[in-house]
Amino acid sequence: MRVFNKDWKPFVTSVSKVDTRNGKSPDKKDFLLSQSTIKSIFAVLSSYFNFLIQEQVLESNPILQIRQKSKFITKQQHSLTVRRISNLQWEYVIETVEKLAAADPATHERSLFILNCLLGMYLRISELVADERSLPAMGDFKKDGDGNWWFYVIGKGNKSRNIAVSDEMIDALKRYRLFLELPPLPTVGEFVPLIVKQKGRGAVTSTRQIRKIVQFCFDASYQRMKKDGLVEDAEELKMATVHWLRHTGISEDVKIRPREHVRDDAGHSSMQTTDRYVDSDARERHASGRKKRLKEPL
Question: pLDDT at residue 17 above 80?
């Protein structure tokens, strides 16, 4: 006998980070199924009907016909906007955290290193913390025979990749290690955790703790921007999440680096994903359409 699990919630609604902090909760009446959710439903149903065909219960898969002329699935001819912070907002964030680190190094030298990792190496938040899958360590920074530094990480889908480490990222690493009273550069096989606990020993194991650290830095930067009269930019920063730093780093690098290099560093499965971060065509298209007239001048 099959029993329905009341705790199973395949479709969830959520509100923005700002609305959550203001105490607003989601109401399902205000939401429609997203395109990704609809596509997932079709994929699950298609797999189910394929199983029924194999069991000789059905002769054909109805989802295949429905998909072809479905009024529910939208074919997008534009790329989705990448959520990122602006260069000005990043400058305020990094300057703010540098000031915090100077005033309270015991707390914020780690914060500074975390931010540099998230933007400078496009790391996902899960790639910073220790779990049953991996233990990010200082020894994951490795120098090759040409003297180039790489960072080895196990990322999304348990896929390992190596990331080209910039000179400025090496400087950030040296600063953090000197604060930890370690030699400036890691040695082969060094097992010191990449992000250490502030109290006690060992690695940070909670992504929630990393989010809390980054959010504190965002909030402090927000206050500085408001104080300097940059109200609109400050309000936009309130919407930012940790993952936006990864998007920002990728978006900036595709402007100056070969896209295939950025793809490999970011761990994208296809060039199509990396191309989402290329906005030069959008700029040119908007510039050419900005002067369109609705009527001839008198």
Answer: no
